[in-house]
Design goal:
The protein is about 45% helix and about 20% strand. The protein is α/β, with parallel strands linked by helices. It has four domains: about 10-105, Nucleic acid-binding proteins (OB fold (Dihydrolipoamide Acetyltransferase, E2P), Beta Barrel); about 125-260, Succinyl-CoA synthetase domains (Rossmann fold); about 265-350; about 355-405, no CATH class. It comes from Sinanaerobacter chloroacetimidivorans.
C-alpha cells in the first residue's frame, strides 16, 4: 500500500527533525578547504568547505566570529565544529559552525612563502620604492586596535619624546575575520582623509602566526605599497615577521620601537646641540692657547709688543664672534620655539574636527569626493555630510543657489 502523499513542507520538516535528533550531526567536526568565503554586512560569514571530491555550505554566525583568532581566506585548510541545519523553505542543508581551528601551521607557512615570493617578483619589496621617514613630523597616524596595549604604548612614547606632535588614532580590527579588509580600508582612508599626515604607524602587539595573519594578506600588502604616506610596520615582537614588514617603508621590531623611529627625542637633540657648542668652545680655547704659545716663543723683542697687540685684537674679534654666535643661536632657538607654538595653534585651529565643532560639515559627493559648491549637485543626488560625531547620508530635494549670503534670482522669459 502506497504512502499517502505529503506536502513538500511536511517532508522538509520531517527531514529536519531527523537531522536535529541525530547526536552525531548535532556536534560534528569536519576538515576541509575554504572556498567562496563571504563576509556579510550583518557580521555573519558564509563559505564552502570542500575536499577533493565533495563540498558542503557552511554558516558562521556573528556571535561566533569574535572568537575566531585569525583571518580566514580561500584555500585555507581548517577544522570546523558545528551542527547540521536544514533550511526548510529551500530544502537545503548547511553546516552551522561554532568553532574553527587551522589544520596545521604548515599550510599557513606555505601560504606565507607563496605570497612573499609573488610580491617579491612584482617588486613590492624593492628599496627603490621605499619612502623616507620624515625626521620632524607634525602629525603621525596610528592604525591599530583602539583597545590594545600597542596604541597606549605608542602614544606614551610619542608624547614623551615630542609633545607637540599631533597623533591621529585610526582604529581597526587587527585579527579575526574581516581584519585584513579593515586594515586595508584604514590605510586608504588615512591617505584620503588626512593627506597632511607625515607618517603612518601600522601595528599591533605580539601573537601567534594565526593571530598575526591579517598582516600577511595580499590586500594589506598592496594598500601599504599604494600609500602616499610613509608606513612603519610594527607587528608583533622582534622575532615576528609579516608580509607587511617587507612592503612597508620601515620595519620596527615593536610598536614602542616604531614610535621612537617616527618621532625624534627633542631633549636628546637639545643635549646634542649643547655638547657640540661645548666642543666648539673648547676647540677655540685650545687654538687660542696654541697661538699664545707660538707668540711667546718668539724672542724678537721689537716684534713682541706688536704681536701681542695683534693677538689681543684677534682674541677680541674671536670673542665678539663667539658672543654673536651665542646671541644668534639663542635668538634662533627662541624664534623656532615661537614658530612651533604658532604652527601648533594654527594646526589645531584648522583641524577638521575643530572646524566641524563650529557647525561646519564636510560634504562628499556620490563618488566620495569633497566638494564645496552646489553646482556639483542636482536634485535627487545622494551626498554624505561628515560631522564631528557622525556621518549623515542625504538626498538633494531642492537647490537654492546663494552667493555671499544673498539669493541669486534669475528671471526667465
Amino acid at each position: 500500500m502506497a504512502m499517502k502523499p505529503v506536502k513538500v513542507s511536511q517532508l522538509n520538516g520531517y527531514i529536519k527533525r531527523i537531522l536535529q535528533s541525530d547526536p552525531l550531526l548535532g556536534n560534528v567536526s569536519v576538515v576541509g578547504e575554504i572556498s567562496n568565503l563571504k563576509l556579510h554586512s550583518t557580521g555573519h560569514v558564509y563559505f564552502t568547505l570542500k575536499d577533493e571530491s565533495s563540498k558542503v555550505n557552511c554558516f558562521l554566525g556573528a556571535e561566533y566570529v569574535k572568537d575566531i583568532r585569525y583571518e580566514l581566506a580561500d584555500g585555507m585548510e581548517i577544522v570546523v565544529n558545528g551542527y547540521i541545519y536544514l533550511y526548510e523553505r529551500g530544502g537545503t542543508y548547511s553546516l552551522n559552525v561554532r568553532e574553527i581551528t587551522v589544520e596545521g601551521i604548515g599550510n599557513l607557512s606555505a601560504a606565507f612563502e607563496r605570497l612573499k615570493e609573488k610580491l617579491s617578483k612584482e617588486g613590492l619589496f624593492d628599496e627603490k620604492y621605499k619612502k623616507p621617514i620624515p625626521f620632524f613630523p607634525a602629525k603621525v597616524a596610528v592604525i591599530t586596535s583602539e583597545t590594545g596595549a600597542a596604541v597606549k604604548d605608542i602614544i606614551k612614547i610619542i608624547k614623551s619624546r615630542n609633545n607637540i606632535v599631533d597623533v591621529v588614532i585610526y582604529p581597526c580590527l587587527v585579527q579575526g575575520p574581516g581584519a585584513a579588509g579593515d586594515i586595508s580600508r584604514a590605510i586608504r582612508e588615512v591617505n584620503r582623509l588626512f593627506p597632511e599626515v607625515d607618517t603612518i604607524i601600522l601595528g599591533r602587539g605580539g601573537g601567534s602566526l594565526e593571530e598575526l595573519w591579517a598582516f600577511n594578506e595580499e590586500i594589506v600588502a598592496r594598500s601599504i605599497f599604494d600609500s602616499k604616506i610613509p608606513v612603519i610596520s610594527a607587528v608583533g615582537h622582534e622575532t615576528d615577521f609579516t608580509i607587511s614588514d617587507f612592503v612597508a617603508d620601515k620595519r620596527a621590531e615593536t610598536p614602542t620601537a616604531a614610535a621612537q623611529m617616527a618621532v625624534p627625542d627633542i631633549n636628546a637633540l637639545k643635549e646634542y646641540c649643547r655638547q657640540k657648542g661645548n666642543q666648539l668652545q673648547h676647540t677655540m680655547e685650545r687654538f687660542i692657547k696654541y697661538m699664545e704659545l707660538r707668540v711667546t716663543n718668539y724672542n724678537i723683542e721689537h716684534l713682541q709688543m706688536s704681536l701681542k697687540n695683534r693677538l689681543h685684537i684677534q682674541l677680541s674679534k674671536i670673542e665678539g664672534v663667539r658672543k654673536d654666535i651665542d646671541i644668534c643661536l639663542r635668538n634662533k632657538m627662541t624664534e623656532l620655539e615661537r614658530n612651533t607654538e604658532k604652527c601648533k595653534s594654527d594646526l589645531e585651529a584648522f583641524h577638521p574636527v575643530n572646524i566641524m565643532k563650529r557647525g561646519y560639515a564636510a560634504i562628499l559627493d556620490q563618488d566620495g569626493k569633497l566638494t564645496g559648491s552646489a553646482e556639483h549637485f542636482a536634485t535627487g543626488d545622494k551626498l554624505t555630510a561628515v560631522l564631528q560625531d557622525g556621518v549623515l547620508e542625504c538626498e538633494v530635494f531642492e537647490i537654492r543657489r546663494e552667493q555671499y549670503g544673498k539669493t541669486e534670482s534669475k528671471n526667465e522669459l
